[in-house]
Write a structure and sequence with these properties.
- 2 copies of one chain form a homodimer.
- Chain A is of the alpha/beta class.
- In chain A, 39% of the residues lie in helices and 20% in strands.
- Chain A contains 24 helices and 30 strands.
- In chain A, α4 links the parallel β6 and β7.
- The first copy, chain A, folds into 4 domains: 203 residues, Rossmann fold (3-Layer(aba) Sandwich); 159 residues, 3-Layer(aba) Sandwich (Rossmann fold), CATH 3.40.50; 113 residues, ATP-grasp fold, A domain (Dna Ligase, domain 1), CATH 3.30.1490; 113 residues, D-amino Acid Aminotransferase, Chain A, domain 1 (2-Layer Sandwich).
- At the A-B interface, α5, α11, α15 and α16 of A face α5, α11, α15 and α16 of B.
Chain lengths: 711, 711
């Protein structure tokens, strides 16, 4: 992990390009730093000035006596490399390059960006940016940005790939009373990227929750590692934008076609335990669940308490829509509620204390439900009335959460002026409180997501299988030597078998006699298919024969297929005919893999057959970091799972064998990153065992032999 | 349509139960009315007082000289009937019954509620409530509620089934600056219900948009009629809560099982042109699209203009997620943009004018895109910067919308203090403006939904078919006479044929000879099935024989099936054996109907076969008000539509015949509301024509013969 102490809490800061002209970035940064409450040394650097804003000015960073731990650079792009070299020579620890005009601007800018990154690396300096707003830490405090404001001190570490969004969010946050520990515009992420910022924020003591706005991820592996570590300590909530750009590339496999760019991010976020937000307000809403204290739900059962039936109904809809459950209150709890609530109250869930009840009655109801062992979380709802003091209720709720820290709350006090103070009291004490019930439910969802993510990270067992790597290398070499990237059916089958995946017997025959011989060995009936990487629609050209029951019909069919191929596709490379033992139909599934940058191989599982693309009943996980829980959940997410369990009286299928196959495909694609795409379709599941009936595999265009890679 | 003038703008108001004791409802109502600015006469009614709040008090309503147009009742429930009779005698036009303790409280209360409703009806009085907060109209102005506040004057007519929610929303709205024309707590809706309020608000000149919070609908037909009328004039946005309660009833058909209670509401809202909101903030967000002017989008193509790339990316995601399209800007537009924007700007869509551009540059970009014929709506996004004045930009946007009223805008100026004034300027001029891009997209969605809803109402042709009603009545009578509700296969087939629905030939045989005879007439092969309402799993007991190719095997199979049935199900009523001509397989579909109170018959269409329940690839529409557009869209919503168009090289199927079948089922179920459930499954579509292979039909429990009913 990088040490970012000199970035977030330096003893001294040099501002390269400091200026006395109001409105210039080099002036705004100096003034922001001075007014932020920063207590270290501030050194303006500018060859042209003696003093700036009353501070002594130095021509170069090297001229500062005692040097500077942090340098902020706001001079034109072409002269940034020189400044970077100066910083390196002066022993600067971290550099913030605010200057724009790099990768985002032009090819020359891109070259310049590479150069300054190299200088930073060579001099062991952290470099943030270029092309960024800068960094703020409210706890140091320090503000080395050209933003117009400084955020409220708070628990949220916020990192944005967009500087303009930072400015907008900052303005908004001051209005909303949202506070931050760190507020960072990451810029071009040439060196320091999201992985570094996550790792650091996970380790600090000021941030309760990490929020990010991302448009891309620089290094998939580093990101996954940092996030998985961080989530053990605090929630990471990410809004990943640019979802819709994805998946435009042409793909030759079903998996490739269905695995749009976002599927990889979705799988990565899930496997890293990241809470994903789809909208900015959802991101901050979910963050609210962790401000003032990290709320973790141990289950999905929610008790709703309300003084207004309508709010309870809305909350129930939202809960069920979000996949949470209304807790079933025990008879004992209901009895207790009957004792403390008025006659007209509802003691089921939602518990409706009715509108004329006061805060003591509300508190008594909360007290009853919190003791119910069937309750994991509480959703208190309030409509303002003349007889209930929301501030006293808030105080009571805070006491209760302290007494029962394992039962988190997310509340909605609907209204404006009459509930404002109570709302703020609750939030500052770690109880999220929102204007509408649906938002409070979003808070609960975040608590559940975080609890489940931690469980997944702690209990999931990484899967490992042994494969015959030499055999696979041998097959790939032979394919490459023949100038191909697409494996023939029998080759792909052999690769699968080398990794312990059950396939139907399938061999390549180069003569009619060999075909007959192979068929005898396998046992009848068999199917024949023309073996050619150039013929896609084999059936259409008479390249397939099914249900062959004896040797002579196999031999005759061989000749017919070869004849058809040479007649109908004279230019195709034909390697012979694939002889395949015919298996009885099982539950038709598909298992596949496509490369999903920056995360590597992405697995797909789902319902197979001709409707794969139509139904899109599929789920995805990264092959790297794959655990037994991931595989189980991946299967469970599809409707295929219902069929495997035995739909409408059918016998259940061999789920263990299906799971193992997914795990073995993961191992194969981790071991051989040169596999670009893979489809097993159909993949049949039987009562006992499974079988791959057709395996399609394509190697990467630019491959350098079978490299080993453990994800 | 009811005349609600005496409710919303009475010349005089009597408050029955008026009181001088602060805090009592009868006192709060008097004070609220006095302080609301109401200019008519106010008459407190209370037998015990001389004057209340300085106003002369009358013992009974009849004692008021000149009477009162509106009476507000806040006396205990048991004496409300007397007061209602007094109002009737005094010629009161409208009554607001605030008092609780009616249907919501007890069976006695329910009886009391029926009584006061009867009194209101007999005396031609409008009655709002009972059990409500009361009514407010900011334009009269008048406030006859016991709420603590009075709303800002505005464009939204708001009606809520929950009084507590009204109080909460009112408090919230004052904080948010949201204004209302009418603000109504509907209470128990014993007489005046949502249909009356919608019809009135549609006709008034003060409301631009109608908002409702509903938990139930009293009269489905009246509601549909009022809503369809209203939507021609102004948008109706409804949050229907209690979604999750629905669908708990047991159903014997696939359609019944899949048509949970919410499917009926969803279909009704769509067919009435209502914009549905899932969350309270969404409801007000969508309403914002119509405040200050009704924005209607003519298409789904959006041009995004932004000064911050990140906001543009977020907006693009949100647009595509919502089913809107990024407009393709013409070469001419792009050229114009190149001329007015700085070099680094992006002239594609989103148009990124970049962060250092000022409001004039922004305005020039808007000016270019608004003239592009490929643009239906504009989404301006702003991140606050030092160089752009949001207020001047707002003024420019208002001018532009006035010049191009057919190209609506929904904007997002992200931030707090620095964009607040611009935001308010825009909103008050009919341009919705939101803190985040995703919310602005929600505004655009509302404009598109409203535009499409109006088109659907204006262009959709109601479908009508003629059926042989006598034949159906005859079959139903015969079924009822036999003490059955479930029709035998051949009976259900005959009903379908009477409405022009193509079915496979299917007849009941009572003897082996008759079975052979029928099979000869139909042509071989045929299938035989035991005809019994008591045997559900016919195959399991040997009650089905397929692929019978000649007369003698038909006769033999008849005897075998009858034997099997009497052996295995000795208690079942067996009416013989169904002889059915075997048809080749077509595209397997399902068409069905289930009753969906309060809206009547609800049609279902979807992918048929054994996976109906697993895939749930189905769509729903009400049989009443069904148009050609509804049927076309209903089919298009399913994946089955892709199969019908010819999936993967298959020949397209007879879509017209499929549509006609749906229309004929609608006619049948409108004509015979006593049909409780109906499934045609499988329903085969061929290249030419269609065929119902199996029809299941169940009559309602409590039916009084075949009534005619035109929806």
């Amino acid at each position: 992990m990088r040490d970012l102490t000199t970035l977030y809490g330096p003893e001294s800061v040099a501002i390269v390009g400091a200026s006395d002209s109001p409105g210039k970035v080099g002036n705004v940064v100096v003034r922001n730093l001075m007014s932020s409450g920063y207590e270290g040394e501030i050194y303006p650097v500018n060859p042209g000035g003696d003093s700036i804003e009353g501070l002594q000015c130095y021509p170069r960073v090297q001229d500062i006596p005692g040097g500077a731990e942090l340098a902020v650079i706001c001079i034109p792009a072409p002269v940034v490399p020189d400044a970077m070299r100066d910083c390196g020579a002066a022993g600067v620890g971290s550099v913030v390059v605010i200057t724009a005009g790099f990768k985002e601007a032009s090819p020359e800018g891109e070259a310049l960006e590479k150069e300054i990154t190299r200088i930073a690396d060579e001099n062991d300096m952290n470099m943030m940016g270029p092309n960024c707003l800068g960094a703020m830490n409210t706890h140091t405090p320090i503000n080395v940005t050209f933003a117009a404001d400084f955020p409220h001190k708070g628990d949220i570490a916020f990192f944005s790939q967009s500087g303009a969004l930072c400015i907008a969010i900052l303005d908004w946050s001051l209005d909303q009373g949202v506070g931050f520990s760190k507020f960072i515009s990451m810029g071009n992420k040439a060196q320091l990227n999201e992985a570094d910022f996550i790792a650091d924020a996970a380790a600090d003591t000021e941030s309760q929750v990490i929020l990010m706005y991302l448009e891309s991820i620089e290094d998939g592996d580093a990101f996954m590692e940092a996030a998985r570590e961080a989530v053990q300590k605090k929630p990471v909530i990410i809004l990943k934008s640019g979802v819709s750009e994805a998946g435009a590339e042409a793909a030759s496999s079903h998996t490739g076609a269905l695995a749009g760019g976002d599927e990889g991010f979705a799988a990565a976020f899930r496997q890293a335990g990241i809470i994903r937000a789809g909208r900015m307000q959802e991101e901050f809403g979910k963050a609210t669940a962790f401000i003032g204290g990290i709320n973790i739900a141990e289950g999905r059962r929610v008790a709703v308490v309300t003084n207004a039936g309508g709010l309870g109904v809305m909350a129930t809809d939202a809960l069920e829509g979000a996949g949470l459950e209304l807790a079933e209150l025990s008879e004992e709890t209901q009895q207790r509620l009957r004792e403390v609530l008025p006659d007209m109250a509802a003691v089921g869930n939602p518990v409706d204390i009715v509108g004329h009840s006061d805060e003591d009655t509300y508190a008594a109801a909360l007290d009853a439900v919190v003791r119910d062992p069937g309750v994991d979380m509480i959703l208190p709802l309030l409509s303002p009335t003349a007889v209930l003091d929301p501030n006293r209720l808030a105080e009571y709720m805070i006491e209760q959460v302290r007494a029962h820290p394992d039962i988190p709350m997310s509340a909605s006090f609907t209204g404006g002026e009459s509930v404002r103070a109570a709302n703020e009291t609750l939030r500052s004490s770690g109880i999220p409180c929102f204007p509408f019930p649906e938002e409070a439910v979003e808070g609960l969802v975040a608590m559940v997501e975080y609890g489940e993510a931690r469980t997944r990270l702690q209990k999931g067992q990484l899967l490992h299988y042994e494969g015959d790597m030499d055999r696979v290398r041998e097959i790939f070499s032979s394919v490459r030597e023949q100038g191909r990237r697409i494996l023939l059916g029998p080759e792909a089958m052999a690769v699968a078998r080398a990794y312990g995946i059950d396939t139907v017997p399938s061999e390549l025959a180069e003569s009619a006699g060999e075909a007959g011989e192979l068929a005898e060995q396998m046992g009848f009936p068999v199917a024949l298919k023309v073996a050619s990487p150039d013929i896609i629609h084999k059936t259409d050209i008479g390249g397939v024969q099914l249900d062959l029951e004896d040797r002579s019909s196999v031999q005759q069919s061989f000749r017919q297929i070869m004849h058809n191929a040479s007649e109908r596709e004279p230019d195709a490379r034909v390697y012979g005919v694939e002889v395949q033992k015919m298996f009885p139909p099982g539950q038709e599934l598909i298992v596949g893999m496509a490369q999903s940058p920056p995360f590597g191989p992405l697995l797909m599982f789902g319902l197979g057959g001709i409707f794969v693309d139509l139904m899109e009943d599929v789920s995805f996980r990264l092959a790297r970091h794959l655990t037994d829980m991931d595989v189980a959940e991946m299967i469970e997410e599809t409707k295929a799972a219902q069929l495997l369990r035995g739909y409408r009286g059918e016998a259940p299928k061999d789920l263990d064998a299906v799971r193992e196959t997914v795990g073995r495909i993961a191992q194969l694609t981790r071991d051989f990153p040169e596999i670009a795409e893979l489809d097993i379709n159909p993949f049949f599941a039987y009562e006992n065992g499974v079988a791959a009936l057709d395996v399609k595999m394509t190697l990467a265009e630019d491959a350098g032999g079978a490299e080993e890679h453990e994800g």
